[in-house]
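User: I'm writing a tutorial on reading structure tokens. Could you give me a worked example: one chain, its sequence, then its tokens, then a sentence or two explaining what the tokens reveal?
Assistant: Sure. Here is the example chain.
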Amino acid sequence: MKKILKVIILIMLIPISICLFFLIDGYMYYRKEITKMSIEKLIEEVENKINYSPIEDIPKIHIDAVIAVEDHRFYKHHGIDLIAILRAIKHDIEARNFAEGGSTITQQVAKNNYFTQDKTIRRKVAEMFMAFKIENTLEKDKILELYLNTSYFGSGYYTIKDASLGYFSKNLQELNSNECIILAGILNAPSVYNPNDNILLSKQREKQVLNKLIKYDYLTKSEANKIIEESNK
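And here are its predicted structure tokens:
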């Protein structure tokens, strides 16, 4: 009986030890990167960009679209979204493939500014620690502002203003609703959805984003239809 108990304890200790290893390794990675550049220093560097845009200059429809399609619980979670993570794990198990998934906007800010794009457990754990740090340091709107000024929009554009000028030759305040939604749709896969390279896929993505806006009560169906009509003119 004692031997069986020892085996059971050993079996239980193995996954616990593995989890502890990844947690400690990820935390040390996080500490290394946050020591190199504090959140305050990051903000200073981003705000010094030539085409930096404060959140009050970004059209509301674009902000709503980004939240709806990228992280609809953004204003409710504290850096990570456990529901999205569990859904992503379920999808990975079904697909028998380790794919990136479940990242919040805050985690994407962490990844874009502190870490590589490598899909490793170490980086993912470090990204979560960094997301908690960002959430404990900044207001939600500031996090969103950082996201839209440090994300890749395809075609060499790394800020929302760059993308607005590059794709539509317009300042942010001049964008119409469907242009704002197209820009929001690009973020998930810039090489796939940017209108310079894939106008048809860009239009399809716009409809997906509109459906999310309807689903999460940012737009009514009639309002979304009007935007599609404008887009087709």
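What the tokens reveal: The chain has one domain: 18-50+59-73+99-232. The mean pLDDT is 88.
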